[in-house]
Amino acid sequence: MYLIDNELGGTTPLDIILKFKNDDQIIDTKINAEEEDDLEIEDDFFSDDLFGEENNIWFSNEKIETIKTVHQYLEDRIEIGKVTSIYSLIDTANQINKSDLSMFELSVLYNEIPINYKTDLIDPYLNVEKNMIKISTRVKDSKDIKRNDLVNDINSFLLNEFDNLEEFKVNGLLVLYNNMLKSLFSSQIKSLGFVILAIFIMFVILFRSLKLSIIGIIPNIFASTFILGLIGLLKIPLDIMTITIAAISIGIAVDNTIHYIYRYKENLKLGRNHSEMIEKTHLTVGNAVLITSIAITAGFLTLCLSNFVPTVYFGLFTSLAMIFAMIGVLITLPSILRYQK
Question: What is the DSSP letter of 127?
Fold first, then answer.
């Protein structure tokens, strides 16, 4: 991606669709013989294709200036690489002509170009019948970019700078990916809140104690919030891989918590003092939690050998999440239990 972004103009597609307002710029180009005489134009200069009944002059200074402004704005964005639009062809034609073509000359060129070239070069970027144009870009996604800010900036620019646009749309793979990430973030907050509430209700039913349920939920919150906070401090962006780490850490921590508190309750029935009960729980379930957590951590650490950076992040932070979950169960949980009476 880095090579393609820097040498080939970007990776992720982003398209901008512009629909112009209907105005009087589109006029019928059919002229009669008297007007031809007045203009003193030779008959063989104009073809029947150019001045057929269905042909219109779509090009106008206002439209071309709008397309040019949007095209150059996108080119000036550091996040965007290659930009292609009808203006690219117009600019090339101007360079070949060594001067800017007039609107009439552009109309002649548009109507006289062979249909096969028009299909390949113009039709992907211009629809005269619907009064719409498309500007295609590629975004340098390997760089540290803020996709949501980029999309919002383009929308704001199109909304505030032009009065001749009836409608515009920013779409493409980048927008889809950005919307997916935003839905992941919002769903992550909702799902974590729902899972914590569901686990708490399950603890109440399982342990039949509100106090033990509150104590049991703390290690689960500790592991997930600590790892998410660490990712935030290191400024590592959340994506499909890293956003699942918190859910995995809760899933592991809740198992350890249930085993630990259940064994603690069983030891309570023996009638020994509080410190002895916690020590006995540590010697049984505590050893199992320690060995299991170390084994899971070692397993996830193998992902760090990958050449794919998101997989490396996933393996590293999931391993750290397992360690924090273990610390929450073996240190935080018994410390709270020791003073809960």
Answer: E
